[in-house]
Amino acid sequence: xxIITISREFGSGGREIGKRxxxxxxxxxxxxxxxxxxxxxxxxxxxxxxxxxxKGLPSYNLHYGRTFGFAYNQTAVNAxxxxxxxxxxxxxxxDCIFVGRGANIILRDYNPFKIFVYxxxxxxxxxxxxxxxAENFMSDKELIKQIKQIDNGRSKLHDLMSNTKWTxxxxxxxxxxxxxxxIKEIAVFxxxxxxxxxETQL
Amino acid sequence: xxIITISREFGSGGREIGKRxxxxxxxxxxxxxxxxxxxxxxxxxxxxxxxxxxKGLPSYNLHYGRTFGFAYNQTAVNAxxxxxxxxxxxxxxxDCIFVGRGANIILRDYNPFKIFVYxxxxxxxxxxxxxxxAENFMSDKELIKQIKQIDNGRSKLHDLMSNTKWTxxxxxxxxxxxxxxxIKEIAVFxxxxxxxxxETQL
Lengths: 202, 202
Known about the structure:
2 copies of one chain form a homodimer. The first copy, chain A, is an alpha/beta fold.
């Protein structure tokens, strides 16, 4: 089974790269589809699961006298476990692409091709602006806050699942900075490279 | 002027990628050539300069009573400054590729295409073995020690010149993990991608 995982900074174009690779390579694309399956299996709300994936686990502080501690919400932990199980199951159904959800770590034993997609803040803002509508208009300040919050959540989730830093290239087979080049062009090159990479793994 | 910089872990194949890109793209390749020019200008020994580039700056501890401090060797600092000047000068002579020496940081204002080449320890050991001769045979343990020492030196030099982590992908346009795929194949793909990248920067 050939598996591609895409980890991506918010606004960097990772989702578009995933869709394009899926079209070119004929791999099944999983993103919010994962959440639908988990929501069915766990009777949890899809938006709740999405929040956990994007912002990390909700936690609360504990203290007993002078001892301080910290615990995760049990429902959230159960949801993450269910998500990991679902990702593993889906990955075995056929060649596929997972965007986000820590799939690079969850599927590491299956030798996936792991991509990290990132960009600089200016280009991420531009990209978010292109996708936004009049109704959800945000000021630059609000947008920057949102980008940082979401990336911070994704980074925290990575930390929770792995002992390494989210943006450290050691976690990936290739890291692509999308600043100053069209996603379409990147996807063309990546598809060729990935095809070759899988051939050499046989 | 089109500039490519290659930062690379020891044994990952970064030097070979640089040579191959130089052949394919017709860019001038700079590596130890930089040292020769600096050695001439500063009357410093070439091997000494090489040691600084590979192992970071020699430093010594200071203490006055109970106050501890730390200082860099002035000759080494001067050599690094000379190297930075030489790299900037060479970069303006024509399209070129710099391997190592912190060129990605030194030349950041010239919008270079910045590559980071890395690999896992197993593949780095294999690669070092392929290049070694009977005379300089090392045990696995010695080889691992050498790889870690050199990478640690390069990482420290990066820290000294920049506020970011050497292996953090934010410092580069692309990061390529060479484990499990031939350098030759990577170079072909990279050359195409870089050509396209420079076109889109115009």
